[in-house]
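Q: What structure does this chain adopt?
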Amino acid sequence: MKKTLFLGFGLILLITACTKTAPKVNFEGKWVGTDYSVTVENVDSNTLMAAKSITQATAYTFNADGTFTEQVFSYISKGNWTFAADSSKLAMTYTEKNGPIDRINPTYIVVSANDSNLVLKNTLQGFGDEIVNLRKQQ
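A:
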């Protein structure tokens, strides 16, 4: 009996430990860029510094109705967002694009999240990944 009970408890513990849970975060509110990195080989330092500067000049406001606003410097773009908790994917679809940067419709993997920090990963069409760090503005 003890052996069966121990085996059952061990099985429950194993299943619980191996179950992936999506990060729980309230996306609503304003998030500002803090850092940017890539896993792409041979990226020159000037390009990487420019991307970091743009990220740090970017703010996203996610609204409860599933819309978002992106501000990069003085350019404002708009769109819709969804979060799929089962796959930890944050999808952003632009409906209005402004500014010098051609926007894609990214689907980010939420690498880590809490109420004040968000780390997102986006695959760059087979070239590697970009990692975007955001901080929630209070």
